[in-house]
């Protein structure tokens, strides 16, 4: 049976490895299990078993870059976990984004005139802005945990999703620009077969799709961040002022 002091040694070791806290706790459970197994099977002391486990994990803690989602280097094991999680969220976001892309095309064909489509275009994109605002309003209690530089004990980030919350602001600002547009080129192309502004058509269709997908990703990301914070509740209150 491992003592509290020994568990704290494992925790401190993983904090030193600069892992996000949510990933750290998952790995800590694996390490503690490994240490216990080695102590039982090989009749070693805690210190010797811990040393053996650290050596087995050594390659997983080398610092690597992950430019897509982290401006700084992070441990290899953190990159593996984050890449798997983010890829899943990106796939979901892309698929949902495609659904809204299809809805946009349906709105073009169902609109009686350009003015009606302009209203639909602005309403649909405005819904994404409202969703972002609603997320912030209804999650005021965790605002203090959304700072990209907020760290547990000043050494590791709280969740793997934390630093990407800033993407929400960028997406919102960009979507405000889109809401001010009217979708003219796309409407003229599909309803009136006007092919003189193909570039404008591509931009009108592509930019809203990209931003909608990005916002969906930020919303899913925020939801995962919130779920992780709930799991970390016992660690948070003493360390956040």
Write the layout of secondary structure elements.
Elements: H1 4-16, H2 21-42, H3 46-57, E1 63-66, E2 70-75, H4 76-110, H5 114-137, E3 151-152, E4 156-157, H6 166-179, H7 184-192, H8 198-231, H9 233-236
Antiparallel strand pairs: 1-2, 3-4
Helix pairs in contact: 1-2, 2-3, 4-5, 4-8, 5-6, 5-8, 6-8, 7-8
Shape: elongated
User: Helical region count?
Assistant: 9
Structural class: mainly alpha
Spatial arrangement of strands, main beta sheet: 1-2
Q: Helicity level, as a percent range?
A: 55-70%
Low-confidence blocks of residues: none
Give the number of DSSP strands: 4
Can you tell me about this structure?
- The chain is mainly alpha-helical.
- It is built from 9 helices and 4 strands; from the N terminus they run H-H-H-E-E-H-H-E-E-H-H-H-H.
- It has helices at 4-16, 21-42, 46-57, 76-110, 114-137, 166-179, 184-192, 198-231, 233-236, and strands at residues 63-66, 70-75, 151-152, 156-157.
- Helix 1 crosses helix 2 (21-42) and helix 4 (76-110) packs antiparallel against helix 5.
